[in-house]
UniProtKB/TrEMBL annotation:
InterPro entries assigned: Aldolase_TIM, NrdG, Organic_radical-activating, Radical_activat_CS, rSAM, rSAM_sf
Name of encoding gene: nrdG
Catalyzed reactions per annotation: glycyl-[protein] + reduced [flavodoxin] + S-adenosyl-L-methionine = glycin-2-yl radical-[protein] + semiquinone [flavodoxin] + 5'-deoxyadenosine + L-methionine + H(+)
Keywords, ordered alphabetically: 4Fe-4S, Iron, Iron-sulfur, Metal-binding, Oxidoreductase, S-adenosyl-L-methionine
Free-text function comment from the UniProt entry: Activation of anaerobic ribonucleoside-triphosphate reductase under anaerobic conditions by generation of an organic free radical, using S-adenosylmethionine and reduced flavodoxin as cosubstrates to produce 5'-deoxy-adenosine.
The protein's Enzyme Commission number: 1.97.1.-
Sequence intervals crossing the membrane: none
Domain of life the protein comes from: Bacteria
One of the Pfam families matching this protein, by short name: Fer4_12
Protein name: Anaerobic ribonucleoside-triphosphate reductase-activating protein
Presence of the UniProt keyword Zinc in the record: no
Amino acid sequence: MKVMNIIHDSVVDGVGLRTVVFFAGCPHFCKGCHNPKSWNIKNGIEMTVDEVVDEIASNPLTDVTFSGGEPFFQAAEVCKIAEKVKTLGRNIWTYSGYTLEQLINSNDYYQRKLLTYCDVLVDGPFLIEERDLTLTYCGSRNQRVIDLSTITIT
């Protein structure tokens, strides 16, 4: 899979101290995106599932955030990472330009399966006209922070 970067000890990408995996590839092309280089999957570096999990596990004090790009763009691989991360006892937040409804109704099995491993979804595309710097964990007012433990995903 293609990964842009992995950073440790983030305090802005979810509750608590987090390791953030920024995946390459994004179909949304949001105007004002903070990471437009991530749109092109070719800009990422090739990493295996185990390499990503090993990097996450190297910092035992953090939970995990999947960001991008668009994590659901490479859902089959990210799903495998998420499954292994959960065995480490880590909480997973995922940022997506898709809405929860789009993901739940997706024809892609792995997009729906990835949701089942996520604890929190920050959903919706970044909309520059709804940008709001006062929001916590979101960039624009249309985005939602959703506790997935309250939702049944099949």
